[in-house]
Amino acid sequence: MRTPSALRPLQRHSRFLLVLATASLLAACSRPAPPEEPVRSVKLLTVGVGALQSSLEYSGEVRARVESRLGFRVAGKIVKRQAELGQHVKAGQVLAQLDPKDYQLATDAARAQLASATTQRDLAAADLKRYQTLKDQNFISGAELERREATLKAAQATLDQARAQLSSQGNQAAYTTLVADVSGVVTGIDAEPGQVVAAGTPVVRIAQDGPRDVVFAVPEDKVAQIAPDSEVAVRGWSGGATLAGRVREVAASADAATRTYQIKVAIDSAEAPALGATVYVTPKALSHAGIPAIKLPTSALRQEGQATAVWVYDPASSTVKSQPVQIATADGNEAVVAAGLTPGMQVVATGVHVLSPGQKVMVYQPKTASAPAGKAKAAPELVAKPASAAN
After folding, report:
1. CA-to-CA separations, 379 to 368, 376, 384, 391, in angstroms, rounded
2. What tens digit of pLDDT does each residue of 112-155 get?
3. CA 12 to chain centre
4. Could you give the CA distance from residue 384 to residue 237 in angstroms, rounded to a whole number?
5. 260: pLDDT strictly greater than 90
6. Distance CA 385, CA 321 (A)
7. pTM, rounded to two decimals
8. How far apart are CA 190 and CA 170, in angstroms?
């Protein structure tokens, strides 16, 4: 039988094993410590001032300065249309014709009325001559002679009216033929044979030969900067030389549908593209080329709430901090910074969405392969061989 003194070391050993087992169990149930965040490598760029390259450019259309909408001066049914879309016509050329039968009948009726009025006038003139002879012989009174004179005047007035009516009806019959009053190109057909049109209804549209305009539209915030006679550069959509033009007209009110203002630019008609051609218009008054500004690639920008920010590198601590910036506009693929940065700052150029304030970073150093000067290979040989062979 063991004595109490012999049992004491055994009890101490059991307690030690119990404490060790408990510690091991707690260590197994606890969460492992999170790994340290790696030091990220970032590309930096130094903020500087550069000249803007882009300018505001608008899409325009080449149009004739004067475009006429021609229509018949009388109503009727179109029986023939000689004009075709895109056809060049000369002044006096027949464009379309109405059915002239009704107007020819009216002309014949007016001609018959003229003949009747002529006969009545001649009869009244003969009567007046006979009554004048009788008056000279005192066979009739002076009042009777005056009545014959009045009859002759009335007959003469009726004759004049019939003559004017015949002339008017002749014009009406002539108006059934639509002729071009100017030389130009047919740009639109608004009526077809068989259609009954009213007087004045547009039938053919003609772009007159002569000066050409480029027409484009600008928004409300830009129209005040474009003044009449200001310079404009015009280039064709399909290429070609750039043409010089000047603003000829600025619309006084906005278009009801687009709420933009129409601008007309005069260009040289000898070098102008074809009518209806699409062109690009660059107003000199809206050009930003050459203006000094701070520009950043869009990859350096990030959204921080409602503001735009960039990461600024601190070389003393090798950390980054967030810097809000104000963007004014875009210049090609770069953003123009209006406020928030000064020249000389170093900004993170890429990977901005994986950084956090105060994070320690490492400046990326591009790897460049260099060969001894005496063993440099020709460029074609380096291009032809794989990278492994070159090393």
Report:
1. 16, 9, 9, 14
2. 999 999 999 999 898 888 888 888 888 778 888 888 889 889 99
3. 95
4. 40
5. yes
6. 44
7. 0.58
8. 27
Neighbours of 263 (CB within 10 A): 26
Backbone angles phi, psi at 141, to 5 degrees: -80, 170
Spatial separation of the C-alpha atoms in residues 351 and 381, rounded to whole Å = 35
Cβ 139 vs Cβ 131: under 8 Å: no
What span, in angstroms and rounded, lies between the C-alpha atoms of 208 and 211?
8
How is residue 324 written in tokens?
């809000």
In angstroms, rounded to a whole number, what is the distance separating the alpha carbons of residues 362 and 37?
13
Q: Residue 211: which residues within 8 A CB-CB, separation 6 or more?
A: 64, 65, 266, 269
Vertex 62 angle, CA 56 and 63, to 5°: 130
d(CA 53, CA 57) in angstroms, rounded, equals 12
What the chain holds in terms of domains, given with CATH numbers, is 101-170 (1.10.287), 209-286 (2.40.30.170), 292-363 (2.40.420.20)
Nearest to 77 by CA among 212, 161, 194: 194
Residue 110 corresponds to which tokens in the numbers above?
Answer: 């007016």
CB 283 within 8 A of CB 275: no
Cβ distance 220 to 242 under 8 Å? no
C-alpha closest to that of 173 among 89, 74, 251, 82: 74
Position of tokens 């062979």?
389
Q: Is 83 exposed, middle or buried (0-12, 13-18, 19+ CB in 10 A)?
A: buried
In which element (H, E) is residue 197 found?
A: strand 196-197
Give the separation between CA 372 and CA 382, rounded to whole angstroms: 14
Q: What are the pLDDT digits (tens) for 341-379?
A: 889 888 998 888 888 888 888 888 776 544 444 443 433
Tokens of 279: 């062109």
Contact 180, 93 (CB under 8 A): yes
Looking at residue 27, its pLDDT comes to: 55
Q: Which residue has the tokens 């009948």?
A: 105
